[in-house]
Amino acid sequence: MTLFRIARKNIRKNFTNYFLYVASMIFSIVIYFTFVSLKYDEAITAATESSQKISSVFNAASVVLIIFVAIFIWYSNSFFTRKRKKEIGLYSLLGVRKKQIGRLLFYENFLMGIIALFIGVLLGSVLSKFFVTILMKVMGYDVIATFAISTNAIINTIIIFILIIAITSIYGYRLIFRFKLIDLFQADKEGEKEPKASFFIAVLALIFIGIGYWLALQNILESEAWRKIGIMVTPLVIILSVILGTYLLFNTLIVYLLKLTKKNKRRFWKGINIISTSQLLYRIKGNARTLTIISILSATTLTAVGASYSLYYNNKGNAELANPNSIMFIQQDEHLANKVNDKILQEEKHQIIYHKTIPTMQIRVDTSSLNNLMGESIQEYTFISTKTFNEMAGLQGRKDRLSLEGNHAAILDAGYYEGLSPEYVGSSLSLHVDSIAEDITFKKLLKYNVLNTKTANITVVIGDDLFSKLEKETALVNMEAYKITNENNAKEINEVIESILPDDASFSSFYNDYSLGMETSGLIIFIGAFLGLVFLAATGSIIYFKQLTEANSDKGRYNILHKIGVNKREVRKSIAKQVFFIFALPLFVGIAHSAVALTALSRLMQTNLLIPVFICIGIYMLIYVIYYFLTVRTYYKIVTK
Amino acid sequence: MKTILQAKNVQKVFGAKGNVYKALEDIDLEIKEGEFIGIMGPSGAGKSTLLNVLSTIDTPSAGDIIINGQQIIGMKEKQLADFRRNQLGFIFQDYNLLDTLTVKENILLPLALSKVPTSEIKKRVEKIARTFGINEILDKYPYHISGGQKQRTAASRAIITNPSLILADEPTGALDSKSATSLLESLSMLNEQNHSTIMMVTHDAYAASFCKRILFIKDGMIDVEIHKLQQTRQEFYQKILDVLASLGGGNI
Ligand SMILES: Nc1ncnc2c1ncn2[C@@H]1O[C@H](COP(=O)(O)OP(=O)(O)OP(=O)(O)O)[C@@H](O)[C@H]1O
Ligand SMILES: [Mg+2]
To answer: What is the count of residue pairs from A and B with beta carbons less than 8 Å apart?
Structure first.
């Protein structure tokens, strides 16, 4: 068939074009297939018993991935067809019938899609094993993943991509019918007018971004604006206003600023500035949409990865906060407690750092006097004496020491949340123990506990005298607290103790919380990092492709410059400057957006995200810088060829 | 008189094995300071190629080229670029204007690249724009101006640095006779007053009559050479027509 021959010849002639397109399709397929394989991987499902939760997280993430992959393929496809419009126009001019051309495009695209699908699944099979191993590691397992290709994953991938390929192929088929011949020939031409920039719209860009930032940084619980707009609607308003502002920023504000720099002749008319600045100005408007997409993608990536990494990073701290003692339980039966003690002593992996039997009282109190916003008003608090507190605080390396007189008390609340938790300090609480009724007043709030939260709940420290007075009227409850070495690797001893103790012993351990946290946050960070890497690779590629097209259309310009005596070093400098601008702008904007989002998030979660977020941004920038140098190099090569 | 340019046995071969084409065949040429040389010849004779080779934009396949006492074969890339920027001025057959710059920016580009002070740049641009009558279009982009205006812009850019050698490839090709004359007169004036050395390729006998010496090229070789000497422009013009006729008709 002649049509087939023409198609084959085409592919050979426009190899780089086809290569880039197929490569980006393969990339998408590999990513998707790898991810779906993880979902069906037996080692992972077996290791994580809570498979229900895991699979729902995976499902949500794969939906995000499908959307993204579809957009990415669509983008590469339109990039690819745009470069070929002229060629298509030529066929039409030579008298090939439209229907034939359409069929040619359809087959061609479909064939490439099938080839990409095949290669993608093959590569993905190898990669998925690698990723399974990583995932198990971050979740705190040391399982060797077995190599097995999941048929489910293959079927899933094939269905999704055949659909995407079919849609793009149909789009290709219809392309020829949608354009007039003249359009096809002019497809490659650049925008010819000098970009306009209105001061008003430039300011509007800043206002939109400003509104978004301002809303995001409000205290959600108290903000008037949030209440007026609505708690559910405000985040949407923030996102829309920031995206719109970003677009206007690139579309107008940057143009405006560039024009301003042009006004300063002393700088503009100096060396290569005149070339790089006007080149940028000429392009920026056409690039506004891409730059906006890249900024938003970067911001999303950084925020998601930063937040999930923080979760992982803070896991140990959170487990420690909830479990200041490695092991703790309520002693109801001395015999069982001794048995536990023996088991811990027997275990060679762990040494006991301290072991305390803590006398406490469990008293039901009416917390309505505390303005409690959350939970039941009748709660059971644990009461300990000042002496006990000081002793435990000392053992746990805390600096605080208490001395409480009369009916003064201190409260230990490890789950304290500013704004939601009761305002303890200054409030009073009535205690009714048998015949005694005492009003205690909170003088101090400590945002940690010396007892494990799950065993002891919120703990109240009262003066030694008051403690002994109440002690006579109510039964003391003894709690056993251990600190052991190697506490984050205590699966075996944990299981042993759990089997000995009854449920109402309220057993709690650092290991339980820690490993659960590792499992969930490990999964979240894995998915976050996975998606983050994909987005990063995609954003990098989008800029890279875009710049290469521009390099091709710049060839002529640099040739002219060469003729009038611009040397290669100056050419390189001009390119580096121009490309730097295109890379740095969205990165900078993305970082700014994500910084605001993460600040808001860290306020909401009341944790400090600084270190993990800096690490993420650092890595992101590093990869970005590599892309930058790669682009400059290729650009330079194309232009000076 | 100082020798500005000397070319010895210059050859240029295009294409690779099996498919070679000799565009220049053994050209010997010497240009003295203050000369105004015309190059004529049929289409495809190798005129543009010669100009490109002499102007260091293209490298010859064989031979030596010495400009202003400097051997340019084997010069470093940066030296060549500086040399082009400071010593040479071009007016290209296809203008070679940057569409990202305004007319004004195109003209002042060589000065900006050489980091000439802003006030000096302004002065020179004004003067040249007046000479070529393009004051009105200074802030337009090449997209929006006519072919003739583009050519005048290109000419302005070529001479704004006061180069010691101006190379022009059919500078009047797209001009009406009035603007052609004004361009040729400005070139003449540069030649007379600044002693700029000019080398101009042209098909047009009228344009060629402004030169002082004319080389006729055919099949990559210098065929005939005529001098103006004491003749008036009218007489010289007549002589050019005679030579063209004797060389084989009006297919030039
Ligand atoms: N880059 C090239 N590769 C191969 N052949 C070339 C190249 N440039 C020019 N030629 C050939 O060299 C010959 C001389 O070309 P040149 O451009 O010098 O002609 P010209 O005398 O300037 O013609 P015109 O008056 O039409 O401008 C032509 O036959 C042309 O096809
Ligand atoms: Mg020519």
So the answer is: 83
